[in-house]
Amino acid sequence: TPAFMPVGTRASVKGLLPDFVRQAGAQIILNNAYHLMLRPGDALIAELGGVHDFMKWSGPVLTDSGGYQAFSMADLNAIDEDGVTFTSIVDGAKIRLTPERSIEVQNNLGADIIMAFDDCPPAREQEHSGTDSVAIHNHQERLRSANERTARWLERCVRAHARQHDQALFGIVQGGVDLSLRSASAQQICQFDLPGFAIGGVAVGESPDAIHSVVRHTAPLLPEEKPRYLMGVGYEIDIVNAVRAGVDMFDCVLPTRNGRNGNVFTRTGRLHLRNAIHRQSQEPIEPGCLCAACHGGYSRAYLRHLFQSGEMLGPILASIHNIHHFESLVLDIRTAIRDDAWPRFFGSWPVLESAGADTPRAVVQTERDDDDGLDT
Known about the structure:
13 strands; 376 residues; alpha/beta; eight-stranded parallel sheet; three-stranded antiparallel sheet; 18 helices
């Protein structure tokens, strides 16, 4: 660690063969239990040998529990103490998902790391408009109830987990941007002796500064000897800041979602391949990059042509590059930690300075010692 997990919601990192994902540097990918439960069904995947055999990915897999969908598809579901009732996005049928059922689904899928079924509350700016006292009070109550429910549901998940010998169950800390509630949630969740812990509810509408504040506060509250996973985050600066707080694992749809739309990440900033400025450019996306798109000699002019023509190879090559970009970032962080080479690391990632990163200092290991999503 730190490790970045590309998102393969429906047992597929969109448009990419497993070998492409592996060659881009990924060691582990994320699937979503909710979507695979709906189609093709967790029982069928179990019958076919589990998600690894099903999608021909030989590395580790992490499955999200479906709790995030209770938030992201709030107009299609109803939550109560026992669980969540969904309206299926496949056929409109009513689907009941409880902590026990979520764990059963993930046991059937056979992922290496599975997530507890949690109650992920929305950010206040999404739940209410304005700053009136009633709205704020109601949101605080929603955060408190989500904390309590998440803890109660975790206990049920632990009892229901039938594959503790080969699947690592991670608990999830909630609390919104209220640091006192984050502390309370961390205390509740960490009472369980689990293989790892996650910080949830930080990619649901908050500002980047709020996310950084929550992560800096919460990560040191989690057991130092266990993996710490920040769910659904994020840009390069978000990852670096989170590592400095002590986070180990990340996932995000940014590499593939942006790649499919012609937006690519480089060490100096993002490029929009559809822009006319690239029409005659013979440069690769990023000179010196060793991904299959850049090292293979595909020019920006050619990539722009693919996107302008609607050719599927464009999104494939851009997605490969973007995954390689984020895997290179975490690889370089691992090297900087090992060699205590932070000035060299920051010097090779100018995008961090332009995003407002602190001046290079050898602080990450010291701070640690002292202490996603739906991909559409």
